[in-house]
Specification:
Two copies of one chain form a homodimer.
Chain A lengths: L4 H7 L1 E5 L1 H9 L4 E7 L5 H12 L3 E5 L1 H7 L8 E6 L13 E5 L4 H13 L4 E4 L9 H7 L7 E3 L7 H4 L3 E5 L5 E2 L11 E6 L7 H5 L3 E4 L11 H20 L1
Parallel strand pairs in A: 2-3, 5-6, 5-10, 6-7, 8-10, 8-11, 9-11
Antiparallel strand pairs in A: 1-4, 2-4
Chain lengths: 248, 248
């Protein structure tokens, strides 16, 4: 599970490291299968959380420190991991909702940050192409800082399936052309699917083929591009700004 | 140099990995002291760049692959690194300019991304507190994707020195309070210093003490906070949006 997306899919479970995720799991009543503890170096915060899990009847296992470190996604963590069941999500059918769609993004840290940014911007559905890194890897989960638990996550979605799944206009963040994000009007109306491509490659042809509107961020000429997490933050929060300021 | 910020400061030089940074160094006429090549696995793009450096009279060294991998900031890179001199920057005195100020941010990848995002937003001066990770570490340089070369970078700046150095209003990105970023008017006028704090800690007391205006990003209640790079992207691009749309 620590190393393999296949194991996570087969077991329908993953590892969440650290006090913050453990705390979030408690608050949101996530199904926790086991608590793993590092033999040496459990801090007070982690010890307090352990007690809460034991009170709930969750089994705890103490791992040799070398073993714990080998499976932990971070180097100097809290000495506590939980094994959690993945939520079951049904594929929607023309669901009217806002979506962030990730096309070919392979870095687990980026995946987690993108989920976090989407949820913070009010977008709770996130879908990813078959080429993307796994949403539920321990590294992505760690970078998501709990946002995974507030999101509906759809993996293995091809661009040509987006219209079937969601009832929303499809917007492409595309540094290579289209309209200026700030000058173009009305794209925030109704529901949207914001598509973000991988660094270097950008959006795939398949993604561009289903696009309703291409938008670019007008960046300074001294810089070639933004990193995908920064670009998503800019687009999703411009959407949020427009909706919040129009409402008021 | 690969491992130690002290060595980078002492030598006034650092290592830049990959074809993109090498290409940028050539375009911007950065002083390159040496080219380092991996004994095995130089790709065509890197080979073409090597030729250009050799034509300019730069010395090249071939490193054993194990040694190269040990000092490279990425795992599967292009097999090419360059050693570059750090630019000399004078401390400014009440300079009227836009600034991003980083307070206690320790992850080198975040540091690089923040520099890239600032330059993309039109903010070319970046300053950091003594607690921050080094701007010029190979990892930060790699994450900056060339933005370092388009920026004026000031390290070891205490919050209480900001007014001496820059003639600009000081804005604090503070999740704990202040005014709504989108509803507050006029903060983008003139020049600004945008201060960003570390994840978890937020801005230090010293930073809050020099603040002219505190602003928060109105995030969804399902999420506690944004990662610092995403928060900076939102604030700096809201500044850019306001300035671009007012001009037109």
């Amino acid at each position: 599970m620590a190393q393999s997306a296949r194991a996570i899919r087969a077991e329908r479970a993953t590892l969440a490291e650290g006090a913050h995720l453990a705390q979030t799991a408690l608050e949101r009543d996530i199904k926790v299968q086991a608590v793993l503890l590092r033999a040496k170096g459990l801090n007070n915060e982690a010890a307090a959380l352990l007690e809460k899990f034991l009170q709930k009847g969750v089994q705890a296992f103490v791992l040799d420190s070398l073993l714990f470190d080998a499976i932990s996604p971070v180097e100097h963590g809290a000495g506590l991991m939980i094994e959690i069941s993945l939520p079951t999500v049904q594929r929607p059918r023309a669901m009217p909702t806002d979506v962030l769609y990730l096309d070919g993004i392979q870095d687990p840290g980026n995946i987690g940050t993108l989920i976090r940014t989407a949820v913070a911007s009010g977008v709770h559905s996130i879908a990813s192409s078959p080429e993307c890194a796994h949403f539920w890897s321990p590294k992505a989960l760690r970078a998501g800082m709990g946002a995974h638990f507030a999101a509906a996550l759809y993996e293995n979605v091809k661009p040509q399936e987006l219209r079937e799944l969601f009832d929303a206009r499809i917007l492409a963040a595309d540094a290579r052309g289209g309209s200026d994000l700030y000058l173009s009007e009305g794209w925030e109306a109704g529901h949207t699917v914001w598509m973000m491509g991988s660094e270097g490659q950008g959006l795939s042809q398949a993604a561009l083929a289903v696009t309703d509107e291409r938008l670019y961020i007008p960046i300074d000429h001294d810089c070639e591009s933004l990193n995908v997490s920064a670009a998503a933050a800019v687009c999703l929060f411009e959407q949020r700004r427009r909706r919040l300021t129009q409402k008021r």
